[in-house]
Amino acid sequence: MSMFSFMKKEPELPPIDPTLVLAEAQECLKEKDFDSALEKFDLLCSLSVQSPLPLLSRATCRLQLKKYEGVLEDCEKVLMFLNSDIDGHEEESCTTVHSLALMRMAKAHKELGNLDSAKSSLMRKNAIEHKLGRNRVDDDGDEAAEDMAEKERQTAEEWKEKGNAEYRKENWTLALEFYKNGLGYDMYNAKLHSNTCMTLIKLRRWSQALKHAEQCIALEPEWVKGYYMKGMILSGESKIEQALVVLRQAAKMEPGNTQIKALLDEVESRVEYVESRLRRRKPAKDKEPEQPEQQKADDSGNDNDNERAVEDVDSDEEYCDDDGCRTPRKIKLKVTRADVINTAMELAAAAVGVAVVWWFVTQRD
């Protein structure tokens, strides 16, 4: 082994490009090479999953490879994401991500012999499509879908009431769990999205709360609460300019809403304060303040190299920076050569005085 072998570094692997992996997986699907496609989707799902589509695609591969338990596992994870439209599956009467996941679950349950679970998944899929007015089933199926949708709405309401009870007790985590259970039965319930959003705001989980606020706005565009919550979230993230736009829109929708007005006033005050601080600090950067005449006289005849700047970091004086945070102000003081000489002479005189006194005392003894 070479004595310098420790200096040799293993070459770093290039970062994984999800777009490239997805393209390779889709190519494998076109060629019906489901084993290779499954490997690609496993790699995608091992990354930080921000979309349900890799999970849904992997469920499709597992269904073809008769790995039915894996299909159910992936589809359950898909149902935890917010629902969205999907193209290319009209032949299965599926126009949303959740509909397609439930269809895959129905097929997996059927192959596993769980006929009741298969029927339940299929009815849930039909209920979603019926609610959106996109279902293509016969009259009997239409009636069954409506019954199923009504049962799911009732179950969602029950979970919402449980969540409300915990919310009033300030048990935010448990309330959030109950609200999410309700959304599992009724993803189009704007009040459930609203309650989930408010709970996430209490937990200061801003990015998740924002998704539910936007979903609330999409479901109920005329309901001002969605805009109010979005403004609150943006303000919490210190995105005050964006918050100002949303809250002004909310104030136009309900001019008499005191909560919106109070939050809008607070955000406007923050914007005005930051702008005023920037205006006050800008001249100080453009032009250095002139020295007083007395200081000029004291500094005359001294070399600039002998001046020292001292920062007083223990000062109690504070100021607000651009982000509105209060931090200690650093005060710069000038120490001249004359100050140093005077201090040294005082110390020398004190030392001589001490020596004379000591000599006098020892002579007496």
Strands across the major sheet, in which order?
Answer: 1-4
Stretches where pLDDT is under 50 for at least 5 consecutive residues are 294-333
The topology string of helices and strands comes to HHHHHHHHHHHHHHEEEEH
Name the overall outline: elongated
Percent range for β-strand residues: under 5%
- Ends apart, CA distance between termini: 79 Å
The residue fraction in helices comes out at 55-70%
Query: How many beta-strand runs?
Result: 4
What is the typical, i.e. mean, pLDDT? 76
How many helices does DSSP assign?
15
- Oligomer state of the chains in this structure: single chain
Query: Could you tell me the radius of gyration in angstroms?
Result: 35 Å
Largest sheet: 2 strands, antiparallel
Structural class: mainly alpha
Give a brief description:
This protein is mostly helical. It has helices at residues 18-30, 34-46, 53-64, 68-78, 97-112, 115-131, 139-168, 172-185, 190-202, 206-219, 224-236, 240-253, 258-286, 293-299, 337-364, and strands spanning 308-311, 318-320, 326-328, 332-335.
